[in-house]
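To close the section, here is one more complete example, presented without commentary so you can practise reading it yourself. The ligand is flavin-adenine dinucleotide.
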Amino acid sequence: MEHTNQAGMSKESFEKLLEEVHKIGEEIMRPNARDVDANARFPQESIDAIKKLKLMGAYIPTELGGLGLNITQLARVCEALGQYCGSTAMIFAMHQIQVACAVNHGLSNEHFKNYLKKVASDSRLLASATTEMGIGGDLRQSICAVEQNGDSFTLTKNAPVISYGKQADDLFITSRRTPDSPANDQVHVVVSKEDYELEPSMAWDTMGFRGTCSEGFLVKSKGHIKQIIPAPFADILSQSMHPTSHILWGSLWLGIATDSVNMARAFVRDMMKKNPNAPQTAALRLAEVHSVLQLMRENVHGCAEHYQQLLSENNAEALDTFSFSVKINNLKISSSSLIIDIVSKSLLICGIAGYRNDTKYSLSRHLRDAYGASLMVNNDRIMNHNATLLHMHRGD
Ligand SMILES: Cc1cc2nc3c(=O)[nH]c(=O)nc-3n(C[C@H](O)[C@H](O)[C@H](O)COP(=O)(O)OP(=O)(O)OC[C@H]3O[C@@H](n4cnc5c(N)ncnc54)[C@H](O)[C@@H]3O)c2cc1C
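Output:
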């Protein structure tokens, strides 16, 4: 790992930035979230507002023109965004996961330094193509391969899901190193819009996260070999993509869960105002769901702080251990399960007002988004990994 970026923004500046994030959340994201969801459309106005705050370069070091947030600050931004529009928060998180891979593993290379400067200055939007037709969600295998010819390469990937593929400026693609490489000898390739063509193969008409516009494409790309991140993808995954994904996803799911509890709280307050003698059952349920939310929050924050600590020590060895991997897998499994529990409990409190699509207490979008969490790298796949790792691991 070459750059860990963990000093972060000063506490005072970060709190001001977070206030700005909540402001665009209230003024732009929340008012548009229902339409984004209903029409499965890209949340353009919200992403534009995020770009105005220079947040596309949030995790890029300040010396390259970024804001230089550390991982816990970045996670707090995802948590805040999740309270207003799950799809916008997911787009932001997925973009930042790619940024983290390039920041942590590309900076020994002049090409990636200049590339990250451009991402920060031009607010480029980065998307990811890891899932592959015929392999599904196994990140450690690829069918497609880089075909090198001198200093140039071509790469074709049949990707069934690329979030905001049409809107992105750059694609981060996992691939076998060469056509003769085994499926798990992978590299991470970065291609810009002018380097690739997207042939649409699958639409995105889903239960939740509808605004991520995660359509399928046959990607045909070409480029210069300097666009391949120098580190093996196995290291990029274990040290950066795996922890960053589960921390940032967990954070935005926490944001969605927090909003649902806030709605349940508002519902109980309104109910009590209207009828002070109403039975206390809903208030009791609110106390119950609030304790589950606290559990989720502590777990997400704790894992983010642990990862930040290891990054600030530049401790690549600790990041590669079984125990860290199991911990991050557990974070994914628990946060993707707790979000469903919390939103369901909030729905029970809000009752039919939460079940309807046209009330201020509607939890339909929250619940549909919540069910996507356990599929983003299937929880059973992750559980299988942990089962294997725990056999070999002697204990914490
Ligand atoms: C909102 C959203 C956005 C997404 N955005 C992107 C994106 O931008 N880029 C991208 O590349 N992908 C993206 N994905 C894809 C996602 O992260 C998963 O990789 C993909 O959904 C997995 O597809 P699957 O369910 O068909 O496959 P699988 O993971 O293969 O799961 C299918 C079934 O097979 C079982 N299974 C298969 N193999 C195993 C195994 N070894 N152990 C245990 N069980 C197994 C699973 O349990 C499950 O029942 C997105 C997904 C969502 C929901």
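Once you have examined the tokens, check your reading against these statements. Strands lie at 126-129, 147-149, 152-162, 170-176, 186-192, 196-202, 215-224. The first helix runs from residue 11 to 38.
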